[in-house]
């Protein structure tokens, strides 16, 4: 039986790779004491499972089988796997994400998280590509976080180098462009801002400035006041 908690508040954060949506979502969830779900990790988990099985992430049947093999009880453990952060896994994620049956398989988990955030939290922040458009179209506040493709490639390059991964700027930029194209042009749930999303371009903002801008929008939109100062 669903529990009798009051309806949870939902903040939807979408945007392209390395726009800063994950950093912003984590910090928002901290500030508001909300639960956070990085939905990209779900697609990465499906991509990684196919790669580990020696399969092809573009094969719809293999991707669908891997998506249905993710179970809510074990998913939190799977999402903590550091292997999810590898660049080839990001690429595999964007290939499995094209498959409508994969998206369908992951939908219930995301909607349940939004409706019944873990830890008895009074709200949830979900970040991804289609949260404001498909997963939670009735979210209380929606943000679409962007930055120029060059700024995003610089950020991802720095992040990968800090983790000791040997990469060059041109390859990261090329990968980002490829993934942007695949995510924006796919037929199902393409990356695009919801009509009622607040557009936040972080190209020349640091993470603190992005958080301040987001908090001020969310507070004015939702009437939340206790964490807004
Ligand atoms: N506003 C910002 N300015 C500069 N770097 C940022 C900003 N927001 C996030 N970052 C850094 O950029 C990288 C990508 O950010 P992340 O939040 O993982 O993006 P996304 O979730 O959109 O892929 C991380 O290394 C993060 O620390
Ligand atoms: N809600 C979501 C989240 C991610 N994805 C897919 O999963 C891939 C990896 O997402 P991510 O958010 O982990 O990627 P980064 O922004 O961290 O690079 C994306 O390129 C999308 O193809 C999606 O289709 N829908």
TrEMBL record:
A GO CC term attached to the entry: cytoplasm
Known catalytic reactions: CMP + ATP = CDP + ADP; dCMP + ATP = dCDP + ADP
E.C. number: 2.7.4.25
Main localization category: cytoplasm
Domain of life from the UniProt record: Bacteria
Domain spans labelled Cytidylate kinase: 11-216
CDD domains: CMPK
Keywords: ATP-binding, Cytoplasm, Kinase, Nucleotide-binding, Transferase
InterPro entries xrefs: Cytidylate_kin, Cytidylate_kinase_dom, P-loop_NTPase
Binding site for ATP: 15-23
Any matching Pfam family: Cytidylate_kin
Gene3D superfamilies cross-referenced by the UniProt entry: P-loop containing nucleotide triphosphate hydrolases (3.40.50.300)
UniProt-listed GO biological process terms: pyrimidine nucleotide metabolic process
GO molecular function: ATP binding; CMP kinase activity; dCMP kinase activity
Cellular localisation: Cytoplasm
Family label: Belongs to the cytidylate kinase family. Type 1 subfamily.
Protein name (record): Cytidylate kinase
Species assigned in the record: Skermanella aerolata
Taxonomic lineage of the native organism: Bacteria, Pseudomonadati, Pseudomonadota, Alphaproteobacteria, Rhodospirillales
């Amino acid at each position: 039986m669903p529990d009798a908690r009051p309806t949870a508040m939902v903040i939807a954060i979408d945007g392209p790779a390395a726009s800063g949506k994950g950093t912003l979502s984590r910090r928002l969830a901290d500030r508001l004491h909300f639960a956070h779900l990085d939905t990209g990790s779900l697609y990465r988990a499906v991509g990684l499972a196919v790669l580990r099985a020696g399969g092809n992430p573009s094969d719809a049947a293999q991707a669908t089988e891997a998506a249905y093999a993710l179970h809510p009880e074990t998913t939190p453990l799977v999402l903590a796997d550091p292997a999810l952060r590898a660049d080839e896994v990001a690429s595999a994620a964007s290939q499995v994400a094209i498959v409508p049956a994969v998206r369908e398989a992951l939908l219930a988990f995301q909607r349940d998280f939004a409706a019944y955030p873990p830890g008895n939290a009074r709200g949830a922040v979900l970040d991804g590509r289609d949260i404001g458009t498909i997963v939670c179209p009735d979210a209380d506040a929606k943000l679409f976080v962007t930055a120029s493709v060059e700024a995003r490639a610089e950020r991802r390059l720095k992040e990968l180098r800090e983790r000791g991964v040997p990469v060059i700027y041109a390859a990261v930029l090329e990968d980002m462009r490829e993934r942007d194209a695949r995510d924006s042009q796919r037929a199902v749930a393409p990356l695009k801002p919801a009509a009622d999303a607040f557009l936040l371009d972080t190209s020349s903002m640091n993470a603190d400035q992005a958080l301040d801008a987001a908090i001020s929008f969310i507070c004015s939109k939702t009437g939340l006041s206790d964490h807004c100062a």
